[in-house]
User: Fold this.
Amino acid sequence: MSFHIKQLSYKNFLLMEIKNEKNILIIGGSLRAKSFNKYLASNLIEIGKEKFNFEIFSDFNLLPHYNTDDHNQDNWPNTLLELEDKIRKDDGVIFVTPEYNFSVPGYLKNCIDWISRLPNQPLDRKLVCIQSASLGPLGGARVQYHLGQILVFLNAKVMNKNEIFLTFAKQKFDEKSGKLTDEITIDFI
Ligand code: FNR
Assistant:
């Protein structure tokens, strides 16, 4: 660490400290094009861009259904390996997800099942938080607790606060641009 600091100019070092720069991976959105959770994910990037470097993973449809018969450590799907790299190198992960039937959407659960089979699975001790957007008045509260339970099993460090449940999503985004227009929500996030 001290060697690394010596390589930086003092000014850059101070800037890094002030900006508290961290790399964050967002795993999120739903499969549909105009997903409110995709919108939430891209608004997070805008809101947090001064402090964080973000990247998004939402290619859930490129992962086949997990099947123990097919899985072979020499033949992991490329999408999974790319996702693994991102999880390992980034400082934290934000899951941004809809709630389906009070729980975790199948494609996200499938993605986590794949991740969980990797050797030295990368969510172990990873700092993680969860956000959700839904059309209803609870904003996906129940999916957050179910997802949290899965992540506890994977030994991720799940942040308990602040909880961001984006309720009544239809009224809070500009439908065309996907921009979050609700000031109270933007401030809270
Ligand atoms: C839903 N939706 C929903 N909403 C909610 O608040 N609680 C729920 O349990 C469910 N269940 C559910 C199941 C299924 C199969 C679908 C397709 C939808 C509604 C959901 O909040 C809404 O469709 C969101 O727009 C989904 O998020 P995206 O796709 O906009 O990101």
Summary: Strands lie at 22-28, 52-57, 92-97, 127-133, 157-158, 164-166. Residues 1-8 have pLDDT under 50 and may be disordered. The chain is about 40% helix and 15% strand. The pocket of FNR is lined by residues 30, 32, 35-37, 98-102, 134-136, 138, 140, 169 (CB under 6 Å).
